[in-house]
């Protein structure tokens, strides 16, 4: 009777976990559709689709245009991350709860600033309608993120099997690169504080409306600080071989890759890369940082995307044959009926 009670309890936990996972997948699809909707809106507003790319890279191709943009490079990365998390849930992957938690945490970080920036009329030229919809998007994203954290917690409590640990060599590579990225981004923040002063720097972290190019854009230094924090957490998790941090590490690596690639594209368009030797040391460091972020993101993404270490295989030749001198284990003492 006691064993049956434990079995029923485990069955209920797994049923709740499946229900929470399905709910989490729907929430991820909602976030992905929201990102896709705003990207479609910007593509319609743009005179050419490439205008949206250059906006994401930080170089509006038509500064004289009166169009009010909404998206940044975060939208496609977060949208793809949400879709990947939903697929992990539908496939009942052991990493699905961690993927839901990673999406929730990153969404909370990057969707919080528009609430106070847009509420204070943070983007000049934006009408009340566009600002209102962007505020609704940010608010709904925060609520959805909290619900995703709850679903992820329920999924962990009812998980039937645990994910294996990360492979040692790829995890070490990812940990070193992500830690280097975190230190580099943090060093730039220290430099900005010394150059701008604390009050001006803090304004660039919490947001200054005149510096925004898009409705859903977080402040520049807020984004860099968030990337540094995510890189540090992912590096610590990868160094420990913790499989629970793998989805967050993958998402962080994708964000670093996108950030670095966009910065390199903008610098190439401005002619900085082709005249690298003639640049001032400060500008050379900017270009080198962008290249390092892109390279770090790419290599860490490939390292963490490798399959995790599987269960230890039985020693000996393949096919179930035992090595010479080894005998099969004896039968149990209490034989079953008709043995």
From TrEMBL:
Keyword list, A-Z: Membrane, Transmembrane, Transmembrane helix
UniProt key word Transmembrane helix: yes
Chain intervals with Pro residues compositional bias: 325-339
Entry's transmembrane regions: 66-89, 96-112, 132-151, 171-191, 248-267, 287-305
Stretch list, region Disordered: 316-339
Name of the protein in question: Uncharacterized protein
